[in-house]
Amino acid sequence: MSFRHKIIPMKTPNKTKFAILGLLTIEPLSGYDIKKFIDQTLSYFWAESNGQLYPALQELTKSKWISLKKPSFKEKKARKLYSITDLGLLELKKWLRSEEEKSVHRDEGLLKLFFGTNIDKEECMQHLKNRRARMKSRLTEFQSILHQLQKRSSPHHLYWLLTLYNGIHSVKAEIRWCNQSIKILEGRSS
Amino acid sequence: MSFRHKIIPMKTPNKTKFAILGLLTIEPLSGYDIKKFIDQTLSYFWAESNGQLYPALQELTKSKWISLKKPSFKEKKARKLYSITDLGLLELKKWLRSEEEKSVHRDEGLLKLFFGTNIDKEECMQHLKNRRARMKSRLTEFQSILHQLQKRSSPHHLYWLLTLYNGIHSVKAEIRWCNQSIKILEGRSS
DNA sequence: GATTACATGTAAGTTGTTACATGATTAA
DNA sequence: TTAATCATGTAACAACTTACATGTAATC
């Protein structure tokens, strides 16, 4: 005999909300703006889809962490501009100060390489060369963003630069690893 | 008036199945073995939970990509040993040869740093120091695995080494970036 | 007039985790 | 005999994506 307890799975905090809150500390934005900003600027380490974004905006409004600025009668567009509230800022800071949780990401390319014995060495090398090419074009992109960022200046600018550096360090390490791995595979007769 | 088409979202291929197939090319394994292997060896770039693993094993069996070896009457444990079938190997190879899909991972630490202006510089630095410490202990772990791996030898061994090198390159790049970022923040008066 | 970009949203699905249950085997 | 580990599995939920609908505004 055993007691049957109700299963109450621990909720993993919804980080989408904090991404939104963070962006609204820069300036009031619409859902559309937020999506664009994330796609253009955070995409290296963060992604959101509309299916998450818009419901999150509604929930944040309900819990008064953000508020809807009604468009002035001059404004032509039907866009909804959101601002962060004092409460929202408080919650954002709480999250910013909290310890990071480990998040395992899944790297399909590495999984394929791990099982590389099952296909030809040449096919593995081709995958590595493709990966290297992707990383190189990413590096070029990062460096052009770096150029633009170094010209501008805002309170946020320093931290944006740091996250960009992370991307640059990472892709450079990836490129070095691809080069090394390709060489190692080339050296193998089989 | 508009035609209302049935919504049939494109299925994103279930990679859990391929992780299982790949591991079964090494040797017949039970669900428990697979979980342990993934946790111990692939955890740097791959994770699975039991809630995915066991249903996947059943589906793979149903579609005849793997088969259940009935335990010999001598075997004491109630474990189910699975082997990959010819069909399964074919499908695995197909996947191994396919082009990699981009997968955006979410890095909560970078997201926090991006919004760093909202908290004290010292708090951001503390996050970076914690990250660096985590990366350093990961590096130590990788290096001890490297030691063990260099002693053993199997057809798979070379590819395992390559994925391990990827981890080593990555964490080293992370450590360098943490050091640089901490220095940059220290240099700031604000 | 047509096309592209702006703008908000939802239905339906897949994917993945958590927190259990259940029972066998092994070691102290 | 008690505890730990081995071993398989599931219910409930949370997270997330895709593929749409719907309409406005700007531009070619």
| Chain oligomer state | homodimer
H/E series of chain A: HHHEEHHHH
What's the number of extended β-strand segments of chain A? 2
CATH architecture of the largest domain in chain A: Orthogonal Bundle
Beta-strand content of chain A: under 5%
For CATH, the homologous superfamily of the largest domain in chain A is named as: Winged helix-like DNA-binding domain superfamily/Winged helix DNA-binding domain
Shape of chain A: elongated
For the biggest sheet of chain A, the summary is: 2 strands, antiparallel
Largest interface here, residues on each chain? Answer: A-B, 62 and 62 residues
CATH topology of the largest domain in chain A: Arc Repressor Mutant, subunit A
Put simply, the count of helices of chain A is 7
- Integer average pLDDT of chain A: 89
Strand order of the largest sheet of chain A: 1-2
List keywords for this structure.
Arc Repressor Mutant, subunit A; two-stranded antiparallel ribbon; DNA-binding; 190 residues; mainly alpha; 2 domains; homodimer; 7 helices; elongated
Brief account:
Chain A has 190 residues and is mainly alpha-helical.
Structure description:
Two copies of one chain form a homodimer. Chain A is mostly helical and 190 residues long. Chain A has two domains: 15-97, Arc Repressor Mutant, subunit A (Orthogonal Bundle), CATH 1.10.10.10; 108-187. Helix content of chain A is 61%, strand content 4%. A two-stranded antiparallel ribbon of chain A has the order 1-2. The termini of chain A are far apart. Residues 1-6 of chain A have low confidence and may be disordered. Chains A and B meet through helix 1, helix 4, helix 5, helix 6 and helix 7 of A and helix 1, helix 4, helix 5, helix 6 and helix 7 of B. The structure holds a DNA duplex (28 and 28 nucleotides).
